[in-house]
Backbone:
């Protein structure tokens, strides 16, 4: 029991730290593409320390506090279900549908909190976030169905193990189509550029985030870091082969090696998202919904049909 | 419990290196912001970010002359920010009126209405001057002399007296009534 608690704590620590590094990498790479120098890589950690050390804090009631904690808790739970090399604790129960559901829950928590603050921008942003959530469901569902149909299981861990024998998912045509659709969906889950309709800085003043300040925003920063880590981890597990390293004799070395392999795959997923995010402008909400219900849906549905044949 | 005073140097360092600017550009100084933020002078090196939300802002830039109408918004935005907050007045106009020294509708001394930490003189200050002011502000945060938010709390009576002299008694309620009439009606009913 104690072992599991220690393991869970270590996973959480690693995920939070790496998530903050990912946030720093996003800011640096964006800056380099703009031909700027950019902030140091530890900048998001400084931001979070600053936000948590604010001397005054504003709350708008119980739901406002609860929504933030709810978002953080759901993200941590999602992280525990995703296989992380050989150390994950709940991976045996890691159902594909469960994990995708848990990765979307935080948005709902943030929306609760934003709506209860009564700020009109927050309400507008929450509406847009709901519509985005609705738009990404269709291609996401087809991509999950394609995966489950191809491997004949919903378990993430079994999919990772199956990929060790049959090769990465993206080397098979039906799953390559599903991966493309899922990657487009990932862009909206990260809140990156063509689909950052819900936060839209400068247009609706950060949308749902506008009323958060001080410690609430600090907790949301931590949540964002863990969510970044969990989403890239999930993608590299189900489409990029995960990591099961058994080359070394010692289990600790194996674990470190598999974490390193996973990290490289996660960085690749992150880089694609950054590059797409930096070079594209923003969609409006109706364009985004129409886009999601057309192209990614067609690609993912084709993948699902091919996988079923 | 943990003694948080132990971590105060870390907090001060984080506050210094992660100033989020509330995007409230009054007057002509707003035009100096794009070169500061983009690749020419790149303020993000110091962790500064323009931020549209006053709730998570630390640094409030007053970038130009202030009229009574803008001043109302400035005071309300300033009071919305959570507590360690810093004000940087930018250009001669908020300092002593500048070229509007005899205008009937410009505020000559901004620091009578809200506390100002650093003032950059010039009409308009170049981005280099603004960066110099920001560096000065960072030094002041580090040695604890950027205490405008403390002064506002301690001398609130004085600031409020000056504000009321300009706008008349009860101007906050009148403004709020114009923006959020449904909320004010509800409050009145509750009373």
Residues:
């Amino acid at each position: 029991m104690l072992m599991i608690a220690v393991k869970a704590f270590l996973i959480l620590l690693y995920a939070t730290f790496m998530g903050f590094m990912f946030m720093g990498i996003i800011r640096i790479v964006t800056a380099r593409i703009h031909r700027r120098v950019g902030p140091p890589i530890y900048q998001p950690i400084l931001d979070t320390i600053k936000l948590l050390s604010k001397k005054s804090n504003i709350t708008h009631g119980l739901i406002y506090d609860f929504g933030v904690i709810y978002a953080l808790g759901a993200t941590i739970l999602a992280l525990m279900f995703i296989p992380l090399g050989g150390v994950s604790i709940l991976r045996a129960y890691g159902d594909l549908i469960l994990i995708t559901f848990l990765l979307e829950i935080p948005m709902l928590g943030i929306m609760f909190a934003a709506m209860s603050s009564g700020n009109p921008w927050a309400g507008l942003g929450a509406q847009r976030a709901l519509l985005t959530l609705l738009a990404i469901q269709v291609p996401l569902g087809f991509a999950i169905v394609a995966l489950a149909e191809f491997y004949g299981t919903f378990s993430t861990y079994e999919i990772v193990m199956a990929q060790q024998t049959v090769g990465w998912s993206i080397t098979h045509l039906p799953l390559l189509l599903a991966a493309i659709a899922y990657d487009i969906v990932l862009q909206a889950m990260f809140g990156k550029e063509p689909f950052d309709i819900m936060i839209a800085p400068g247009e609706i003043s950060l949308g749902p985030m506008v009323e958060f300040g001080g410690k609430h925003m600090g907790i949301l920063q931590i949540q964002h870091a863990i969510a970044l880590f969990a989403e890239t981890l999930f993608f590299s597990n189900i489409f990029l082969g995960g990591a099961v390293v058994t080359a070394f004799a010692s289990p600790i070395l194996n674990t470190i090696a598999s974490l390193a392999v996973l990290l490289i795959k996660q960085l690749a997923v992150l880089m694609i998202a950054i590059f797409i995010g930096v070079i594209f402008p923003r969609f409006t909400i109706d364009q985004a919904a129409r886009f999601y219900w057309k192209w990614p849906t067609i690609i993912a549905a084709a993948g699902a049909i091919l996988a079923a044949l | 419990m943990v003694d948080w005073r132990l971590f105060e140097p870390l907090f001060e360092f984080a506050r210094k290196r992660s100033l989020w600017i509330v995007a409230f550009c009054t007057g002509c100084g707003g035009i100096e912001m794009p070169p500061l933020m983009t690749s020419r002078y790149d303020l993000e090196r110091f962790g500064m970010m323009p931020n549209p939300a006053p709730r998570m802002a630390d640094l409030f830039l007053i970038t130009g002359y202030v009229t009574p109408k803008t001043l109302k918004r400035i005071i309300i935005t300033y009071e919305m920010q959570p507590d360690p907050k810093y004000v940087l007045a930018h250009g001669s106009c908020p300092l002593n009126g500048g070229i509007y020294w005899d205008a009937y509708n410009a505020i000559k001394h901004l620091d009578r209405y809200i506390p100002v930490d650093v003032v950059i003189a010039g009409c308009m200050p170049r981005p280099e001057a603004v960066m110099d002011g920001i560096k000065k502000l960072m030094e002041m945060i580090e040695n604890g002399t950027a205490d405008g938010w403390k002064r506002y709390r301690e001398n609130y009576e004085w600031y409020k007296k000056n504000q009321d002299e300009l706008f008349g008694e009860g101007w906050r309620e009148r403004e709020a009534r114009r923006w959020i009439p449904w909320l004010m009606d509800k409050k009145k009913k509750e009373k």
Summary: Chain B has one domain: 4-154. The first strand of chain B starts at residue 20 and ends at 22. The mean pLDDT of chain B is 85.
